[in-house]
Amino acid sequence: MKETFQVGVISDTHSLLRPEAVDAIQGSDLIIHAGDIGTPNVLTELKAVAKVLAVRGNMDHGAWAQALPLTRKINAGSIAIYVIHDLHKLDLNPAAAGFSIVISGHTHRMKLEEHGGVIYLNPGSAGPLRFGRSASLARILIQGNRITPELIELSC
């Protein structure tokens, strides 16, 4: 089993995949999109960088979006990751369920916190600038059981 993973985390692209975002996640082994993708073209472009696993956000519509799950359980080595677009809809106890990381989007606000041994990560929005916020995303370096998350503000 691979011991080191570089995971790119992106959310709320709303049909806009910035070149700065693609540059920031180069070298990722896996890209997680936490919803509000906008168009399937965003996923196609991300797949040119690495394997992509995505969840459907509240703004994702159409047959392509309906094929996406609302939540996802992902294993990166020995680390279990739970992905959901809107953290307020979380209906499980991540620690009790064995998750080390919960990734969400929806708020367009970067957030990195730890509660009860679980890392909660929101990469913010990598898409159109809204609410006076900068575009952003995140990277997670996983080395065995060691998790190093990093929030990245994009210069756009």
Listing every helix as H and every strand as E from the N terminus to the C terminus, the arrangement reads EHEHEHEEEEEEE
**What structural category do the secondary elements indicate?**
mainly beta
CATH classification, class level = Alpha Beta
Mean pLDDT across residues? 95
The largest sheet is:
5 strands, mixed
CATH names the topology as Purple Acid Phosphatase, chain A, domain 2
For the biggest β-sheet, the strand order reads: 3-2-1-9-10
Overall outline: globular
Helix content: 10-25%
Termini Cα gap: 37 Å
Poorly predicted spans: none
What's the architecture in CATH terms? 4-Layer Sandwich
Superfamily (CATH H level) name:
Metallo-dependent phosphatases
Overall radius of gyration: 14 Å
